[in-house]
Amino acid sequence: MADAAPAVTGDAAKVRVSLASGFVAHCLQAQWRGVALLLVLQVAQVLATLLLPHLSADVIDLGVARGDRSDVMRRGGAMLAVSLAQVILAIGASVLGARLAMRYGRDLRAQVFSHVQAFSLQEMNRFGTPSLITRSTNDVLQLQTALLMILTMIVSAPLMAVGGVVMAVRQDAHLSLLLAVSMPLMLLAVALLMSRTVPYFRKMQGQIDRLNQILREQITGLRVIRAFVRDTSERARFSTANDALTDTALHTGRLMAAMIPMAVLVMQWSTIALVWFAAARIGAGTMQIGSLVAFLAYVAQILMSVMMAALLFAILPRALVCARRVEEVLATASSVADPVSPQDLPKELPSNKPTATPAKGRAVRGLEFKGVGFQYPGAAAPALHDIKLRVEPGQTVAVIGATGSGKSTLLSLVPRLFDVTAGRVLVDGIDVRELSLQALWGAIGLVPQQAYLFTGTIASNL
Question: Which of the pair, 348 or 103, is modelled with greater confidence?
C-alpha cells in the first residue's frame, strides 16, 4: 500500500483577491496616496470645465449684448485663467493616472511571473506555455490599459454628467427635459453594443493563445518540420488560426467602430432639437442667447461624458476576460510545495561506503524508489507502477526503455518536478516530500535531454 503524502502548505493556503471584480480595489489599496491626489485633480478639472460655459454666457449676455468692452475683457480674462487651470489639471491627472497604471501593471506582471515560477510540470502542462506567456504579457497589458481608463474617467465622467445636468437645469429647466430623451438613447446604444462584444473578446483571447501555441511549436520544431517536409501543412495550420483571429478582431472592431458615430448622431439630434425649441423662447424674450450657448455646451459635456463612459465600457469587457484568465493562474496552487516542517538532509559521512548505520530504522545514504507509481492527470493508465529500485552512493544506473516507457517521468520524480501518486521516493532515507524544495534541488544535479541557452554570453549561462 502506498504511503500517504506528507501535509504541505503554500500558496494553496493563501486567500487571493478576485481580479475579475477587485483588481482596481487592489491598486487603490497599494497606492492610495497617489489615487487620492488623482481624485482631487480630477474633481478640480471637472469644476473648471463646468465653470467655462457659465462664464461664456455671462460674456455674451452681460458684456457683448450691452456693448460693455471692459466687462467682456474682464470676464474673458477670467475664462482664459480658468481654461489654463483646466489644462494644467488635466495634464497632471493624466500623467499621475498613467504612472499609477504602469506601476500596477509592473507589480501584477511580477506577481504572475513569481507564481508561475513555483508551478510544477503538472500545472505547466495544464495551462500550456503559450497560454501562460499570453496571460503574463497581453492579458496584464489589457488590465493595465483598462485601469488607466478607469483612473482617468472614474470620477470625471460621472461628475461631468451630474454637474452638467445641474448646470443645464440652472440655465433652463424646460429645455432640460430633452436630456431625459437623449441620455437614455445613448445608454441603450452602449448597452446593446457591449452585450454583443463581450463574447467576441472572450473568443479573441483564446484564439491568441492558439496562435501563440502554433507559432511556438513551429519555431521550436523547425528541424522536424523540414526533415519531414511539413512546411506546407504547417503554413496552412498557421494561416487557419491567423485568419480566425483576424475575422474575430474585425467583427469586434466593426461593432466598436459603430459606437462613436452613434454617440455623435445622438449629440447632433439633441443639438438640433435644442436650437429648435430655444428659438421660440428667445423670440419670446424668455431666454437669452448666452443661456442657449451655455446650455448647448452643457449638453455637449453631458453627452461627451456618456461617450467617455462608453469608451471605458468598450475596453472593460476584454479587460474582465483577461482578469479572469490572470486570476485563474494566480488562484492555482502548485501541486509541489514545501512541507509544514521540512527535514534536513544528513551531513556527509566521513567514509565512502555505500551504506551506513541506519538511524531510527532508516538508511542514511542513497536514492530509493519504494513501490513508486505515477499517473498523469486524465490518463487512462499509470505511466509508472510499483517501481522498486535502490541506488547506492557512487553507483551508476542506466534506465533503458522504449520511447514513452516512463524514463523521463521516473527521473522527474526525484527533484519533484512531479509528485508520486503512489509509493515513496527517498533521498538519504528521507521522503523527498518531507524536504524543503531548496534543500532538495541543492542536492541534485540534473542534465536535461535538450540543452537550453538563455539570451546572453556563455559566462552568463554558466
Answer: 103
CB 437 within 8 A of CB 8: no
Q: pTM of the full predicted structure? A: 0.66
121 with 376: CB under 8 angstroms?
A: no
pLDDT of residue 91: 92
> pLDDT tens across 100-130, in order?
888 888 888 888 898 898 888 888 888 888 7
Query: Domain range holding 45?
Result: 14-330
Q: Which three cell numbers stand for residue 283?
A: 423670440
Q: Give the CATH number of the domain where residue 376 resides.
A: 3.40.50.300
> What φ, ψ does residue 278 adopt, rounded to 5°?
-75, -25
How sure is the predictor about 22, in pLDDT bands with cuts at 50, 70 and 90?
low
428 φ, ψ (degrees, to nearest 5): 55, 40
How far, in Å, CA of 447 to CA of 425, rounded?
19
The answer, yes or no, to whether residue 350 has pLDDT greater than 60, is: no
Residue 338 lies in a domain: no
Per-residue pLDDT reduced to its tens digit, 129-158:
878 888 888 888 888 888 888 888 777 888
Cα–Cα distance measured from residue 199 to residue 201, given in angstroms and rounded to the nearest whole number: 5
Produce one character per residue of 71-106: b if its CB has 16 or more CB atoms within 10 Å, e if not.
ebeebeeebeebeeebeebbebbbebbeebbebbbe
Residue 406 contacts residue 387 (beta carbons within 8 Å): no
What CATH number is given to the structural domain containing 86? 1.20.1560.10
Q: For residue 68, give Cα distances in angstroms to 78, 285, 287, 409.
A: 16, 21, 20, 91
Q: What is the per-residue DSSP string for 414-448?
A: TTTSS--SEEEEEETTEEGGGB-HHHHHHT-----
**Axis crossing angle, helix 289-330 with helix 32-58, rounded to the nearest 10:** 160
Taking the C-alpha atoms of residue 330 and residue 145, their distance in angstroms, rounded to an integer, is 20
Q: How far is the C-alpha of 31 from the C-alpha of 34, rounded, in Å?
A: 6
